[in-house]
Design a protein that fits this description.
Blueprint lengths: L9 E7 L3 H17 L1 E3 L8 E6 L4 H19 L6 E5 H6 L1 H6 L5 E3 L7 H9 L7 E2 L21 E5 L1 E2 L10 H5 L3 E2 L2 H13 L4 E5 L8 H4 L4 H8 L6 E4 L9 H9 L3 E6 L7 H7 L5 H14 L4 E8 L6 H14 L3 E6 L17 H26 L3 E9 L6 E5 L11 E4 L11 E10 L2 E7 L4
Parallel strand pairs: 1-2, 1-3, 3-4, 4-5, 5-6, 7-10, 10-11, 11-12, 12-13, 13-14, 17-19
Antiparallel strand pairs: 8-9, 15-16, 15-18, 16-17, 18-19
Helix pairs in contact: 9-10, 13-14
């Protein structure tokens, strides 16, 4: 990041939870605190304060956030840290109710008040009058994300192009936490991408709540195609696309991805279901026929495409027959990457009012069935990679191993997809951030094993 620390105003620790969009918010807050002169440390013991940037998406994420908050509050009770600041989606969703449940929290910082984190820290460290909660309305334009203190490896970074979501999916509370869709102006996105490239980033991972909707609020129509063309001029090697809603993923965008030099053939396309009645109850605004037509366009238009998707099992009213339709669809489409969530009833969402809830045990059993089907698909797909060569970006060394590294193919996003375990095969040693040709010699579960060939770059 640019800028310099202005002095040592205090020591703090930081806990970041949730999705990559939330991680970008964490990195922005870290950058602001560093520029203000606060020192980040790994161990919260002995700090002036701890920031917990929370996730509030579904019940499992909230439980993780509550556990992290409670752990930090216990450190405060033990005298190991002076204060606890709670930020992010859980703070935004529960607001002052969180202070009632956990009164030892010093300050809540809402999603859109992240720019005020240094003011909150100054008040806490300076023992000034408490300001227990800091919230701001959702902005008309996405907040700036430059001058971040990145916590990802140096060679890849998340690039958030918009904030919020205009979709009204009945199961999702994100619009209530993150507000309406707000695009970041194209010139700001490109400037941030160049700053990341100057900082050594080789892989840009494009994220948003609804990536394909980019630009509608600013320019009156989707402009992801134009944005990607502009990002092709940035000095990086790979550009990866995440969170593409099926609507607005049209042929011009597919053509732009196919002809690009830097955009990897990887599409993250959350579908959630395939049965038409379920899609209507979810308010997804697409049909099975439209989905299948889109998948055919993508497979036909982008050579060597890796498709990632997610589904929800046990949505209210889902019948055995509708689930079997989904299972048959997964078998037929053979997605290279797939994740499955059980339906999580979320307060203040329309889905909690729907009739015929599916018992939790059935939701889980259906999820397990889908993952069993997917495991067979992935096993066959992975075996087909043996004997092939592909590019691999190296993320880190294998612990306690000599000349062995962990990397990813263009078809693998960090943290959600598989890995490649690479043994050095050339004269030039590998390093984190290098890209190398790799011959795949074996497959195991979701991961591959390979040997580097040629010289890394």
């Amino acid at each position: 990041m640019t800028g310099e620390r202005t002095g040592n105003k205090g020591r703090y620790a930081f806990v970041s939870l949730g999705c990559p969009k939330n991680l970008v918010d964490s990195e922005r807050m870290l950058g602001l605190l560093q520029l203000e002169g606060y020192e980040l440390v790994d161990d919260p013991d002995g700090t002036d304060f701890v920031v917990v940037n929370t996730c509030g998406f579904i019940e499992q994420a909230r439980e993780e956030s509550f556990a992290a908050i409670d752990e930090m509050l216990q450190l405060k009770r033990d005298g190991k840290t002076r204060g606890v600041i709670v930020s992010g989606c859980l703070a935004e969703r529960q607001k002052e109710a969180l202070l009632v449940e956990r009164p030892e929290i010093d300050t809540l910082v809402g999603v859109f008040a992240r720019e005020q984190v240094t003011e909150v820290a100054d008040r806490l460290v300076g023992h000034l009058a408490e300001q227990r909660a800091v919230f701001r309305p959702a902005p008309i334009r996405a907040l700036p994300d430059r001058d971040r203190l990145r916590v990802t490896p140096k060679h890849f970074a998340y690039l958030k192009i918009s904030e919020g979501c205009d979709r009204l999916c009945t199961f999702c509370a994100i619009p209530k936490m993150r507000g309406k869709h707000a695009s970041k102006p194209m010139e700001e996105v490109v400037a941030e991408a160049r700053q990341l490239a100057d900082d050594g980033v080789r892989e840009l991972i494009i994220v948003a709540q609804d990536t394909t909707y980019y630009g509608v609020d600013l320019y009156g129509r989707p402009r992801l195609t134009e944005l990607l063309t502009a990002l092709e001029t940035v000095d990086v090697d790979w550009i990866r696309l995440m969170y593409l809603y099926p609507m607005y993923l049209d042929q011009p965008l597919i053509d732009a991805i196919a002809r690009a030099d830097k955009i990897v053939p990887y599409i993250d396309l959350p579908l959630q279901h395939i049965n038409d009645r379920m899609l209507r109850r979810m308010a997804r605004r697409v049909t099975r026929a439209q989905t299948q037509s889109l998948l055919e366009q993508l497979r036909r238009g982008i050579p060597h495409l890796t498709l990632r998707t997610t589904f929800i099992t046990g949505f209210p009213g889902e019948t055995d027959r509708e689930f079997e339709e989904l299972a048959d669809f997964v078998r037929a489409e053979r997605f290279e990457r797939l994740g499955v969530f059980t339906y999580s009833p979320e307060e203040q969402t329309p889905a909690v009012q729907l009739a015929d809830p599916v018992p939790p045990a059935v939701r889980q059993a259906r999820r397990d069935r889908l993952m069993e089907i997917q495991q067979q698909i992935v096993t066959q797909h992975q075996q087909q990679q043996v004997g092939q060569t592909c590019e691999v970006i190296i993320d880190r060394p294998v612990p306690d191993a000599d000349r062995a590294w962990i990397g990813r193919t263009p078809g693998d996003a960090p943290d959600v997809d598989g890995l490649v375990f690479v043994t050095e095969g050339g004269e030039q040693p590998l390093r984190a951030g290098a890209i190398t040709r790799c011959e795949i010699v074996a497959a195991q579960s979701y991961d591959l094993i390979g040997v580097g060939v040629g010289q890394p770059w």
